[in-house]
Design a protein that fits this description.
Elements: E1 8-12, H1 16-28, E2 32-36, H2 39-48, E3 53-57, H3 65-74, E4 83-87, H4 92-101, E5 105-108, H5 113-127, H6 131-180, H7 187-217, E6 226-229, H8 230-240, H9 242-247, E7 250-256, E8 260-263, H10 265-282, E9 287-295, E10 299-305, E11 325-328, E12 331-334, H11 341-351, E13 355-360, E14 365-372
Parallel strand pairs: 1-2, 1-3, 3-4, 4-5, 7-9
Antiparallel strand pairs: 6-8, 9-10, 10-14, 11-12, 13-14
Length: about 375
């Protein structure tokens, strides 16, 4: 085999953007990269000059990756050539088929350049190992594959559970609305039903957050932006969270200099709702949570501010990580009890090409985010 810095990598993918990303990433590491847009072209390239490693997409028109891998294994030098499968599918069946097809490794899209380089480098090193060392590596790989398969099973189970929860939660909210329409309900009953409805809506947001975070992990979160009326949207959020605010003796207010934003309306609404809900949870009694907007050269800036104890500067990036709890004095900051609220917000803002940050409100905390103008 050639020296590592001149090793030849055959990249097979029907998507040009994926091919270019892989080529640029691997070329920067000193590898020689050969590109193929389909199975037949890949086999021809392999026959002309057997590469040192193959990075192979699974889902391609005509001959898919499984068939290409099977044909490669029958070619001279093909049995010993590492094959790394690329796929946008995160499911156990695809993982198992890749193992049966003889894949040496399995990466999920979207392609992360660092992961690609590490996996290719590892595959090339393994090829140079002695028989004894390779046997140890195979054992470690089997253990890693078992863990990865278990993770995929957990993700599939979570997806099933989340989808199955949506209907009963929506039913709870619907029946709560029906009860509230009945005339003559005692005031205490009305308050209880409002609490039920508020809880159902919070649970609904959490379920949708899980679904969208999962989509983002798979590279399938695609906002559909359009012009959004912020006054209507923020008023709707304030109305939905009024019960929560009243229970904690917190006032909700808005001050909107910018009346419109260019964003996916549903995702923007849920992002603001998550931030306002988070602010209510940690705002001291008899204080105000405020939603503000203004136009900037970057786009439309939205800010959700509370009057609590604030978040230390060194903790401000951590609050956007999944399932993180951050202690700040007497206040438990972040979303450990809610799981993915702020993680969802970051994913949505970044999916729009914007940015999200945390700063002091003096007193309290401001969560700011910018959504770019329409292009």
């Amino acid at each position: 085999m050639q020296a590592t810095e001149t090793a030849t990598i055959l990249v097979v993918d029907d998507n040009e953007a994926n091919r270019m990303l892989a080529q640029n990433t691997l070329a920067d590491e000193g590898y020689r990269v050969v590109l193929a847009s389909g199975g037949v072209e890949a086999l021809e390239a392999f026959a002309r000059e057997p590469p040192d490693c193959v990075v192979l997409d699974i889902r391609m028109p005509g001959m898919d990756g499984f068939a290409v891998c099977d044909r490669i294994r029958s070619l001279p030098d093909g049995a010993e050539t590492p094959v790394l499968f690329l796929t946008a599918l995160r499911d156990v069946d695809t993982f198992d088929r890749a193992a049966v097809a003889g894949a040496n490794d399995y990466l999920t899209k979207p392609i992360r350049p660092t992961d690609l380089v590490v996996r290719v480098r590892s595959a090339l090193k393994v090829r140079r190992l002695t028989a004894d060392l390779r046997e140890h590596f195979v054992l470690l790989k089997q253990q890693r594959d078992s863990m990865q398969r278990l993770q995929l099973q957990k993700e599939r189970l979570m997806a099933f559970v989340v989808h199955d929860l949506k209907n009963p939660v929506n039913s709870m909210d619907l029946h709560a609305q029906i009860v509230l329409r009945r005339a003559g309900l005692p005031e205490d009953v009305q308050e209880s039903v409002k609490q039920i409805r508020s809880g159902a809506r919070q649970l609904g947001r959490m379920i949708l957050n899980l679904l969208d975070v999962s989509k983002a992990d798979e590279g399938q979160l695609s906002p559909k932006p359009s012009e959004v009326n912020l006054d209507q949207l923020v008023s709707s959020v304030v109305s939905d969270l009024a019960v929560d605010a009243k229970e904690r003796d917190v006032t909700l207010a808005s001050s909107l200099e910018a009346e419109r934003a260019y964003a996916d309306g549903d995702l923007l609404r849920r992002t603001i709702a998550n931030l306002v809900e988070n602010a209510i949870r940690y705002a001291p009694p008899r204080t105000t949570v405020t939603v503000r907007s203004r136009g900037t050269p970057e786009g439309t800036e939205l800010r959700v501010a509370d009057q609590g104890k604030g978040i230390p500067p060194e903790m401000r990036e951590k609050v956007f990580s999944p399932f993180v709890q951050v202690e700040a004095g007497e206040r438990l900051v972040a979303h450990g009890s809610r799981g993915l609220g702020l993680t969802f917000c970051r994913l949505i803002v970044e999916a729009h090409g914007g940015r999200i940050w945390v700063e002091d409100a003096d007193p309290g905390t401001v969560f700011g985010m910018t959504f770019p103008h329409a292009t």
